[in-house]
Amino acid sequence: MSRSAHPAGPRHGDVMPEGHVSAPPADLNALDPKVWSRTVARAADAEGVVSVGGMDVLTLAEQFGTPAYILDEQDFRARCRAWRDAFGTGADVYYAGKAFLSRAVVRWLHEEGLNVDVCSGGELTVALSAGMPAERIAFHGNNKSQAELEYAVKSGVGHIVVDSFDELVRLSWIARQQGIRQRILIRVTVGVEAHTHEFIATAHEDQKFGLSLSGGMAAEAVRRALTLDGLELAGIHSHIGSQIFDTAGFEVAARRVVGLLAEIKAEHGVELPEIDLGGGLGIAYTSDDDPREPAEIAASLTEIVRRECAAEGLTPPRISVEPGRAIVGPTALTLYQVGTVKPLEGLRTYVSVDGGMSDNIRTALYDAEYSVALVSRRSAAEPMLSRVVGKHCEPATSCPRRLPAGRPAPGDLLAVPATGAYCRSMASNYNHALKPPVVAVSEGEARVIVRRETEEDLLRLDIG
Ligand code: LLP
User: Which one, 1, 116, 148, 444, has the greatest CB density within 10 A?
Assistant: First the structure.
């Protein structure tokens, strides 16, 4: 990628929101602050190059190549603080590492006073190796292996979130073997229909996570946990799903979890000191999305728990939450270079970039929508129907499918915002594509925090 990224040649017209032919947006060069990370700005001059973290995208592409995930450190830290401040010192914020985890990110979390939730031995290794104290780590999963459980207990993780009767027995045995009492939460299914894509909704009854409240499995798990040696039951966990905009689901979940605490007190005379209400708060991928602020969700959850506990005569438990997407999602963009532009007479223009399905599976998997913008220069405003596609051998649109990208030509840079969550962490080597680097930017400096894969990396695993 060179600085002279705009070879002379025919312009192919502006990309239009697909299916929105009659309503082109007023300003193709505008970058909606709801969708882009906080330090993103377009230069006011004629060129209009976009910058993030004080670094312009031409320099970033030249130094680090494309495609690349560009992570806005300042915005990441600000979002961590917003969650911390919203819940205050009486609560814990666990960042959900599955959204995106790297050692630099773990260090930022540590510095900003957040904890981390992991769901595999791999994530636990990354968190521990970057210095996150084990007691500030919670370990999740519906099918943790024996080895993972032993590793977590031996490392001294603060909480293990138990998801089945089998696991209760297994964990009790492991803890006794290691001569400790492991603090656990029991994950329950509260029966809330979260309004999100069915693949990422997790609180309805018919799915693999959790123990059902209404069916009595949750109460039975509590009975067993209270009698098994080696386990200290600290509380109850609920996670209703992901990319949720409506706070009602969280509120119902909080009420039902407190209801279970009351039943536990009535049956066992025990007041459990903690509840974890999971993650799931949605973010804006396009201007149509309207996410809630952490302060709003914190105020409503804290108040509901306080009120319900007062009604039940319970001491309010310590609350934890586990936001992943809402912290890291908006803080990264993916920078791509346009390779070919193919007008199809009477149909649309196909704009192909140098990444796609291997660096962002979410469009294909969840029908997710993203925004996209021409960022290496300003675009002229002559809308035309087009589609931005990746380079993979897959006819499905494996790249963003809406909103204007300007008038892309070969060599131009396009950026897709809000790719911080579940893009690098779900990246694949489809077509033996090399996973892009993650470059952290802050105050005019950029550094690679996860390097680009190389062909040697591929060959190292393929031992022939
Ligand atoms: N806590 C638990 C127990 C979870 O299972 C999850 C996400 C979270 C917290 C964090 O949720 P968040 O705040 O990031 O929504 N791959 C999908 C998302 C799957 C989420 C799985 N669990 C996607 O790309 O949309």
Answer: 116
